[in-house]
Specification:
four-stranded mixed β-sheet; 12 helices; 266 residues; single chain; alpha+beta
Amino acid sequence: MKSPKEISLEKKIRKKLKGRTLEAAAILFQDPEIKLLQDYANTVSIKRLGFNDHGPVHMRTVALNGITIVNLLHTGGIQLTLEQEDIGTVEDSSVAILMAAFLHDVGMTVGRDGHENAGAILAMPILNRMLDILYRKEPDKQIILRSLVIECILGHMATQQIHSREAGVILIADGCDMEKGRARIPILLSTESRVGDIHKYSSASIEKVRIDQGKKRPVRIEVDMNDSIGFYQIEEVLFRKIKASPIKEFIELYAWVIGKEMKCYL
């Protein structure tokens, strides 16, 4: 059964989609294998390893962030790589980004170390059957989008170089999910101090992340914090991912502790 948060996120995602992207979302929302993988990823991440949310809410949040970024880039006249290279459309890119968002952390079902590689393996049969439905009469697109989604999954930790703007969108969309709700359960379950707690507590200080139209660049990201420990989350996670992203030049990044001066990173 889906949580109220999952249902709310799905409604927000649907409002931003049409055509084939809406069809892709409908499949992703209802696929039982994806749901089981997402739920189990959270079990491993939170209960066994003590990490933040890596389950259905996180992956839907990344999908919403990704589609929001794509729409802002498109509004700003920026083409994604498939369109830029004349081998696909912004709709194709959006389908790939949706699929990657829903599958990028399924490797957490295996463990944290190298979970992006495990995720690529687990995602392959799902991608094959989904793309066969969405692009049955376009086998070339199936091949291209499968590889693109795998690049997005492998690249979402900024541990290896990515080369498409689509993968760059996923990288930043993932980094933007750092509001305090993502750390709530691990903090409640924690009984003793351990290495890595800085990620939980810095995430817990993030009140709000907004992704809107920029003033000088197409995409503006603003982060509100209740404590300066949140700068660790921004500088060690989000900013590092933005720097590694092929869409870095189109991003503005601002952060502030509420009531104090706003800091501009990009």
